Amino acid sequence: MNNTVIDVHNISRVYNPDTIPVYAVNNVHLHLQRGEFTALVGPSGSGKTTLLNMIGGLDKPDAGTIIINGMNITELSPRELVDFRLHNIGFVFQSYNLIPVLTAKENVEFIMLLQGKSKQERDQRVQQLFKEIGMEDKLNVRPAQLSSGQQQRVAVARALASKPQFILADEPTANLDSKSAANLLDIMALLNADENITFLFSTHDQRVINRARRVITLVDGKIASDTAAVDISQPHKFETV
Prior knowledge:
The strands form 2 sheets. The protein has a 6-stranded mixed sheet with strand order 6-7-8-3-9-10, with helices on both faces. It is globular, with a radius of gyration of 18 Å. 34% of the residues lie in helices and 27% in strands. It has a domain at 35-46 and 77-227: 3-Layer(aba) Sandwich (Rossmann fold). The protein has helices at 48-55, 78-88, 104-114, 119-132, 148-160, 178-195, 206-211, and strands at residues 4-15, 22-33, 37-41, 63-68, 71-72, 89-93, 166-170, 198-202, 214-219, 222-227. By secondary structure, the chain is α/β, with parallel strands linked by helices. Residues 6-240 form the ABC transporter domain. Pfam families: ABC_tran (PF00005). Keywords: ATP-binding, Nucleotide-binding, Transport. GO terms for molecular function: ATP binding; ATP hydrolysis activity; transmembrane transporter activity.
């Protein structure tokens, strides 16, 4: 059985191609299997976020193909890409990207509204997700009333709302203190283990790297190394922050 969920074939992203070309991503080739917990690492400007954005369909490569769940997303139109992301990919961003005028519950169920889910389906899924992130008492609280760690947990719940097979996370712990970051990583690790959700992180954070089971290092837009992580911490029970 083929468990590959992300299949990247020799993709490149180049800026200023007609003058002095700068390769943000240069002929990258990689595969991700279902259930992986992988970190993309490297110095600033190494191409981590660009690669993540192309895998997520937020940016298009100038060369190569990206196949996700058997679908070549590099051939999709902008409208088709929006629909594909809506039903297949969960995103977690460094800046949370929560809608400030909506409650935590409304932020999480927003994507399900776009999917046309019924109120009963939305309510059931939201209750389940807020239980998983340990925030059942924060359903009707707006983002400004939540701590940074709580806001990022809501962002994770929103990413999971559509029941995606994998999550793309761009520097998800960058704005969090050590305790909040550990709690967030616990949640993600448990979801990875219990629901076999595939996680791909772009990160500078050693706390994330230490929890990954695979570390892909980018340097100047190319894969410099692709190895199993040595220091893997075990999930522990998270606390409400």
